[in-house]
Structures are given as C-alpha cells and as structure tokens.
UniProtKB/TrEMBL annotation:
The keyword Transferase applies. Its EC number is 2.7.2.3. It comes from Rufibacter roseus. This is Phosphoglycerate kinase. It comes from the Bacteria.
Length: 401
C-alpha cells in the first residue's frame, strides 16, 4: 500500500475520498467539524507538493437524488477558511461540468464535488459511475476510513481505475495502525470494554477479542441480557431474548480461555426512559417490574475503573448507560476518566468510533486518550478480522514470481 508520504503529488490532480459527513444545524452550519479537521493533513500534503485536490464525499442519507439539506456546498465557507485557497464547487459529482472544472484546476487549488449519494449508483458500487469519477483525477487517495467497510463506487470500485496510483490517506493510515496496535501488539493486561445497546451488533467482535484480551468488561444495555440469562429479573431493561444462550456460552468460553469477564454488580434504574425519571440503585438481576436499568451502579463503576486503571492496553466500544441523559451518564463518565488515568500512567487506549467516541469527546477527554477512532462500523468490522473493501482496494496485486 502506498502511504501519502511516499507519493509525490507535484503537478497531479488528486481525487480524494474524504468523510465529510458532518452534522449541520437548521441554518446549514457545521456543528462539529472534527471530520474536516481530520482530513487536513492529507489535503495539505497534496497542495504543498504542488498538486491539486478534488474532494468527494457523502453527506447524510439522501434518497438517491439531490436534496438541499444534504448539499456539500454548505461546507464551502468552512473549507475556504481552513485552506485559504481557491475552492471551486461542482453541482454534480460526475458529468461534463465536473470534468471541465477538474480539467481547469491549477496546482494549489481545490474542487469540491457535490454529494456522491445524490447518485444511487454510489452505494451500489456501480462500475460506470466509478469510471466517470475516475476521469476527474490522475491519482486516487482514500482517506475515508469510516466508509471503508462499504464497497461503494468512491470507496472501493474507483481504485481499479488507478492501478499504479492509489494512495492511503493519513486518517486511513492512522486508523489502521492504531487498530493493529491493539489487535497485534497489545501490552498486557489488555482490557476490552464493551457497552452500548445491543449484543447482536458486537457478537463477532466480542468473540474475536476473547482470543486476545485478559479482561472483558461488559456494561450498557447489553449487560441486562447477561443478567437475565443468569436467572436475574431485569424489569423493562433492554433484552435480546434470542441472545440469552449466547451470553451463557460466552461466559463459558471466556472461562476456558482464561479471560476474566466483568459484568455489572449493581445498576441505576429508572421508572421511565427519561432523564428526569425517578431513580434508584439496585443489585444487578433484581430490577423490579416497571423499572429499567439505564446505567451501571456505584459499586460497578469502582470495580470497572480499577480494572481499567491497572491495564496496559484498553479498547473501549459502547457507553455504559444512556449517556445522552445527564442523570444516566455517570457510569460512562467514570469509565472515561479511568481510561484517561490509565493513559496517563502509560497505557495505550483506543476509543472505538460512534457513541463511545462521542461520549469521550463530549466529556472533553478526546486529547487525553491515545486514539479516538472515526470509524464505528468500519472499526468493528476490522476488529472482527474482516477485510475492508476500501482497504483492500488500495492494495496492489502481488506481482507474479
Ligand atoms: P451502540 O451504538 O450499540 O454503541 O449503542 C449506543 C447506545 O446505547 C446509546 O445511544 C445509549 O443510549 C444506548 N444505551 C446504553 N445503555 C443503555 C441502557 N441501559 N438502556 C438503553 N439504552 C442504552
């Protein structure tokens, strides 16, 4: 795989797949520009080499045609402020106008293409659409790790049209390096913290991790299925009826492999799914009817935090409770703080995308951990041991002996 530092972009037009799927408010202003900031090193390297940049991305989930609220033109003011250079915009990502604008692009300039998903061919991984995109640049760069698990036209198929000129961007490279650090070179003890709503989303990754970790901490909504399977009562808490047996099998497998599993010993319960609901703390598996578990309890916070603080590698995916409600964010905060402390003491900590990344960022700790991944689903699939189409597409065919 060619990394961005290994390629000289001088005089080249680089077709760069970025993940500019940023949140916008009702006035189409960007409310969190993390993803744009993440792509800056890749874009700057190309411009500094004397190349020009053609940016392509998706934004939101349009139905397959143009929609004002999903137009990438709303990003232009931020991009102009960030790069202080000419930024042109093509109202269609393919076709005559895009081609003309790309052809006229001068070194140091940027062309932003309209939302790729205004064409339904993008998500279908359509060859012809990918070929049309490929006409715009001399070299393809993929810096969108968050969509690398999708074989879309711009994330994978287009790479076929650049057999010798396909490059891994800095975001993509650091995501892969950081994932490798925990998958292959983890210092021990290695603790994985799994939380969030559903076991079913994380079964494969949990199974993979059993071969690697020393400790597996399970919190969040998924822990109630474990409590129920062990004979407890869980009231109206989240339950995946069809995963009851899986949880028992997992506990057995963990024991066989010498992995220590930590489940909540107490839980914060509520009489409604509401920040202002009545609250109480009970022993796990003793939740009365009409109540639901929305966070880990104080005893669990202390136990989990202690395990985390004594770890040398920490991987965290999924909140410990409904952290969007302030009153039920205490468990997630306690774990975030323990991860920060472990990091300060020399541990390597990787926060896996989606909600855990949001929680750590929201709590102001994004810079106090080793790495916050930008890819939720992509990171999980990578951790499951799957080949990501977007990564595979950047690899060169082995030359025959
Ligand atoms: P995931 O995307 O699977 O990581 O799940 C994240 C979501 O799980 C967040 O929106 C949390 O509010 C939710 N969650 C965590 N714990 C609970 C719980 N005890 N009950 C309901 N939802 C939860």
């Amino acid at each position: 795989m060619t990394t961005i530092d290994q390629y000289d972009f001088s005089g080249k037009k680089a077709l760069v797949r970025v993940d500019f799927n940023v949140p916008l408010n009702n006035n189409f202003e960007i409310t969190d520009d993390t993803r744009i900031r993440a792509a800056v090193p890749t874009i700057r390297k190309i411009l500094n080499d004397g190349g020009s940049v053609i940016l392509m991305s998706h934004l939101g989930r349009p139905k397959g045609g143009p929609e004002e609220k999903y137009s990438l033109k709303h990003l232009l003011p931020t991009l102009r402020e960030t790069f202080q250079t000419t930024i042109k915009f093509s109202p269609d990502c393919v076709g005559a106008e895009a081609l003309e604008l790309a052809t006229g692009l001068q070194p140091g300039e940027i062309l932003l293409l309209e939302n790729l998903r205004f064409h339904k061919e993008e998500e279908k991984g359509d060859q012809i659409f990918a070929e049309k995109l490929s006409l715009l640049g001399d070299v393809y760069v993929n810096d969108a790790f968050g969509t690398a698990h999708r074989a879309h036209a711009s994330t994978a198929i287009v790479a076929d049209y650049f057999p010798h000129d396909k490059v891994c961007g800095t975001v993509m490279q650091s995501e892969l390096e950081n994932a490798q650090k925990v998958l292959q070179y983890a210092d021990r003890p290695f603790t994985a913290i799994m939380g969030g709503a559903k076991i079913s989303d994380k079964i494969q990754v949990i199974e993979q991790l059993l071969d690697r970790v020393d400790n597996l901490i399970i919190g969040g909504g998924m822990s109630y299925t474990f409590a129920k399977a062990q004979g407890g009562t869980i009231g109206n808490s989240l339950l995946e009826e069809d995963k009851l047996q899986f949880t028992l099998d997992l506990l057995k497998k963990a024991e066989e492999k010498g992995v220590k599993i930590y489940l909540p010993s107490d839980t914060v319960i509520a009489d409604a799914f509401d920040n202002n609901a009545n609250r109480d703390v009970v022993t796990s598996g003793t939740i009365p009817d009409g109540w639901m578990g929305l966070d880990i309890g104080p005893e669990t916070r202390a136990t989990f935090a202690e395990v985390v603080r004594n770890s040398k590698t920490v991987l965290w995916n999924g909140p410990m409770g409904v952290f969007e409600f302030e009153n039920f964010a205490i468990g997630t905060k306690a774990i975030a703080e323990a991860v920060v402390e472990a990091t300060k003491s020399g541990a390597y900590s990787l926060i896996g995308g989606g909600d855990s990344a949001a929680a750590v960022t929201q709590m102001g700790h994004a810079h106090d951990v080793s790495y916050v991944s930008t890819g939720g689903g992509a990171l999980l699939e990578y951790m499951e041991g799957k080949q990501l189409p977007g990564v595979l597409a950047l690899q060169f065919e082995e030359s025959p002996l």
